[in-house]
Amino acid sequence: MNQQLSRYAEALVFVHGLGAESEAARHATLCERTGDAETAVTWRRLVEELRRRKPKLDA
């Protein structure tokens, strides 16, 4: 599953660039609002994966 999340994260960055994290968060929120908690959890995991990949700008 982790490798699959990594691939999805790469695809989101390819398509949305710097907006990938906010796009994943938007999808998670939409899933939560419609009652699809399981899919929302997956989107939240993607948000975390994208945060891990983000370059550290304060270093």
Tell me what you see in this structure:
With 59 residues, the protein is an all-alpha fold. It has helices at 2-16, 20-33, 37-53. It is globular and about 35 Å long.
The number of helices is 3
Shape: globular
How many β strands by DSSP?
Answer: 0
Radius of gyration: 12 Å
Summarize the structure.
This protein is mainly α and about 60 residues long. About 80% of the residues lie in helices and about 0% in strands.
List descriptors:
59 residues; mainly alpha; 3 helices
What's the layout of helices and strands?
Layout: H1 2-16, H2 20-33, H3 37-53
Helix pairs in contact: 1-2, 1-3, 2-3
